[in-house]
Amino acid sequence: MQVNKISKEKFKLLNNKNIIEQNFFINYRYNILFTREVFHLSNTLLFDLFQPSAISGKIKLGFVIDQGLLDHWPNLPQAIESYIHAFPSLQLVAEPLVITGGELAKNSLDTMKEVLNYIHQKNIDRHAYLIAMGGGAILDMVGFAAAIGHRGIRHIRMPTTVLSQNDSGVGVKNGINYYGKKNFLGTFSPPVAVINDFNFLNTLDERDWRSGMSEAVKVALIKDATFFYWLEDHAMALSHRDTETMEKLIFDCAALHVDHISSQGDPFEMGSSRPLDFGHWAAHKLEQLTEFEVKHGEAVAIGIALDLAYAVTIDICDQEIFERVYQVLTTLGFKLFHPLLLEQETNALNPEVYAGLEEFRTHLGGQLTITLIKEIGIQFNVHEMNKNSLDRAALLLYQKSIIHAN
Fold first, then answer.
1. Are 92 and 81 in contact (CB under 8 A)?
2. Lowest-pLDDT range, 3-12, 16-25, 218-227, 307-316?
3. Between helices 319-331 and 213-223, what is the axis angle to 10°?
4. Residue 191 preceded by cis peptide, ω within 30
5. 289 partner at 20 to 30 Å CA-CA among 17, 107, 125, 310?
6. Helix residue spans in 31-185 (DSSP H)
7. This prediction's pTM
8. Tens digit of each residue's pLDDT (9 = 90 or more) over 223-241
């Protein structure tokens, strides 16, 4: 068979002709809005989100609500209905879908399928809005359903916990747990808006009030020393449920999170560095090992303490910084050791927790990149963690937990 010979010049020209270049940018914009009594008839904040609207006809709204919120506010569906009926341009497509909240809402496809069925049965289309009300797990799961339903439905978040109002609910990620791994399935899909109603905080028990504050400590340590000093000064007030102090914590923490997402050049996390995941590699594994009995914020507090202790053992961080952070976290009410962290027979880090490092690397992709703290407000990355030093760090937390208990 004769093969036609093509010169390098002709081949290059032919190759170039077979390329269609594609390059476009999407400008995302959404606001985090703070209010009280979002469904009071005199509060037009939600209604104003749709004005002006390019949508002809009525604006269709569907709601997914965390059961835990309804337990504290049983007349919420009636309040929503009254609010929607007060504005003729709005239409409630159906009664709200009620879902049991907590991490279990993210642990299988079944719950998300309920939301997808709601979208399908109630004809919630790409010009409608799906509004999720609840803690971070509900928001993550509903956001994922909205992202894949009709290839993307507009969604609005109404976070109801400290953690979701100051961190998870204000970002661009969603997802569910799968294969026993945290957030294995998910997308990056920014909401139309986030509405933080501070009145929802009144529904929280002590654990949910406390849990989200670890994310404030985290973001302060990696980005803002002044915020950390403020947390030091107000830790006792926060532990005593001072609402005004908590509202400032939520606002400042949310602002630091969204600033990082929008200004650091990697909002959809295409690289390997994840400063906002400081303390999270061990936290995610602890959540999994305890079958999510340990709440995310509680696990993050332990993860922060472990990574700080590790930084001390490798002589990167001063002991004094570790002690200050430890004191803030314990004053806020966190326990900074869990029995599953340490293998008692060997006084070494639980091998199952250590395996979380590779799971963390796989989830992020590329080279293992762990954020550590050199000084308060100053972060740096390492690409490996010494097992012996991690063993010493875990043992240190165990020893301090005994002292703290006494």
1. yes
2. 3-12
3. 150
4. no
5. 310
6. 45-48, 67-72, 76-85, 109-121, 136-148, 162-166
7. 0.90
8. 999 999 999 999 999 999 9
**pLDDT range class, residue 372, cuts 50, 70, 90:** very high
d(CA 328, CA 137): 26
Residue of 243, 273, 299, 266 lying closest to 361 (CA atoms): 273
Domain with CATH 3.40.50.1970 in the chain: 31-204
**pLDDT tens digits for range 73-82:** 999 999 999 9
CATH code for 31-204? 3.40.50.1970
Q: Which of 186, 368, 172, 360 shows the shortest CA–CA distance to 267?
A: 172
Sign of CA dihedral 229, 250, 287, 187: negative
Sign, Cα dihedral of 200, 202, 203, 205: positive
Rg, Å, the chain Cα set: 24
Classify domain 208-405 at the CATH superfamily level.
Dehydroquinate synthase-like - alpha domain (1.20.1090.10)
Euclidean distance between CA atoms 10 and 255, whole angstroms? 55
- Per-residue confidence band for 263, with pLDDT thresholds at 50, 70 and 90: confident
The residues pairing with 197 across neighbouring beta strands, listed in sequence order, are 35
Q: Give ∠ CA 198-71-106 in degrees, rounded to 5.
A: 80
Site of tokens 């028990």: 205
Q: Which residue has the higher pLDDT, 365 or 70?
A: 70
Q: Are 203 and 385 in contact (CB under 8 A)?
A: no
Q: Residue 228 has which token pair?
A: 């950390």
Task: Take residue 281 and report the two structure tokens written for it.
Answer: 């590699």
Which residues in the chain are classed under CATH 1.20.1090.10?
208-405
Strand positions, DSSP E, 220-302:
none
